[in-house]
């Protein structure tokens, strides 16, 4: 059932994005009286799940959920239907329209993707606000694992800047470190700059260690599960753990480390309660969890926005996501980082979906993915929208269109590039599945 929910969420997100993207092409094409022969959700390789002709257009649903398309008459596209191009141009064909109209038609999809993301981010900010951990609110520094150590970081470091710029949010700092070149930290009262080597990033990506960086906190208890080992041992809400078995354990990670290494053992825990130290005896159960929840009071902040205040902030969020995705390409195409091995296809994306229905996640992921589709589609690769835009800009600047042979060869080259990228993506998905059974 959980897998079914994940698949349905994925299909819903992709369906909305594809339909709106293709409407971005369809609406200006119809406005400029250009014939649209097909409008498809998903690809109809060999057969369709559904199709119906209304007017001049066949509307359908394919069986391969990797995108969708509109087929516009008189246009050399991925269908490579060159027979139509041998006849005399008709006034309702794409090739007969002025270059500026064709440019608007081709830019329609990415434009819709951008404005969709802006709209979703605006509404999320208006309804939910923006809850985050300020990067400069980590009084006790960061918490890193062995992967973080390979990047040159140490537990207790306080992040000051990444590539010379301060991050507003802790989550942004994590991503900035993955994509950045160096990080400036306060370590034991001294300011130092740590270069972020490709080898260190390779360790992050090869182990999928995106949780290599956390934040260090005092071990203050927010709640105790009734009937748990902690409850039976006398731990109460508000206790601050200061030592375990006579050894100082001021921070949550230090306390958890002792618990995880002491299943079915008795431990002595010293807590600070109402300004006084109290000693408690706790028997750690077999599962090495004593039933306490860490207090995160005053750690998170929420920025609230009015509707009109959310509009510019939603735009800023969209631009920030776009900028982040452009920076990701720098890392992905650096073979030393091995980041290309972690690029996910449909299978990997389904695994990212929550196992319970989550509208907030759906809308957030849809907005992020909409920006991603806009960015990918505008790349100047033939067979993508950006490839068509590239040829149209050449025509507008030079005053003459590229020959049909150039357009045909461009589509073939673009198709080969896309198939190569898809092979890598699907190969990663399959390999990640295989690794689970090795």
Automatic annotation (TrEMBL):
Pfam families: PDZ_6, Peptidase_M50. PROSITE patterns: PDZ. It comes from the Bacteria. It is found in: Membrane. Residues 191-265 form the PDZ domain. Keywords: Hydrolase, Membrane, Metal-binding, Metalloprotease, Protease, Transmembrane, Transmembrane helix, Zinc. The chain crosses the membrane at residues 7-27, 99-121, 361-384, 412-434. It is a multi-pass membrane protein. CDD domains: cpPDZ_EcRseP-like, S2P-M50_PDZ_RseP-like. GO terms for molecular function: metal ion binding; metalloendopeptidase activity. GO terms for cellular component: membrane. The keyword Hydrolase applies. GO terms for biological process: proteolysis. Its cofactor is Zn(2+). Its EC number is 3.4.24.-. It is an enzyme of class 3 (hydrolase). Belongs to the peptidase M50B family. This is Zinc metalloprotease. It comes from Cellulophaga fucicola. The lineage of its organism: Bacteria, Pseudomonadati, Bacteroidota, Flavobacteriia, Flavobacteriales.
